[in-house]
Design brief:
Blueprint: H1 3-6, H2 13-17, E1 22-27, H3 34-43, E2 49-55, H4 64-72, E3 79-83, E4 99-102, H5 104-128
Parallel strand pairs: 1-2, 1-4, 2-3
Length: 129
């Protein structure tokens, strides 16, 4: 499937998800690291289709559309939608029984660790010059 076809607005989710068992993972995915990709792959191994909800949030490295494109490129992700940080749960069609995994606070912590790592590496490189 073309990556762009995986990204749908929340209003299209009910039609696209009907007739299947789903697991939704809501996150910032900023940055989308190897560890995050492995986490998504592991979640997708349970026989259910995988919906990634890219949560909009201020002060991210990449905007939500760029993050959605990166997440949609993963083979194990079946659908991607972008939703606001306060209303992302309403993006999930209420008529569907679906598992939800969410830990936005941990996503923010991982993003901060990544930024610190990059800054430390840059500082170390500048000192070596």
């Amino acid at each position: 499937m073309d990556t762009r076809e995986k990204i749908v607005p929340p209003s299209d989710l009910a039609n696209r998800m009907a007739g299947h068992s789903w697991l939704a993972i809501a996150g910032l995915f900023d940055p989308l690291t190897l560890a995050e990709a492995k986490r998504l792959a592991a979640a997708g191994r349970n026989g259910r289709k995988l919906l990634a909800i890219v949560v909009e949030d201020d002060d991210r490295l990449l905007d939500a559309d760029a993050r959605a494109t990166l997440v949609a490129a993963l083979r194990t992700v079946d659908l991607v939608t972008v939703a606001g940080s306060r209303d992302w749960r309403q993006a999930i069609p209420p008529e569907l029984e679906i598992g939800i995994i969410e830990d936005i606070a941990a996503d923010r912590a991982r993003a901060a660790q990544f930024v610190n790592f990059v800054q430390e590496r840059q500082a170390a490189g500048q000192q070596a010059e």
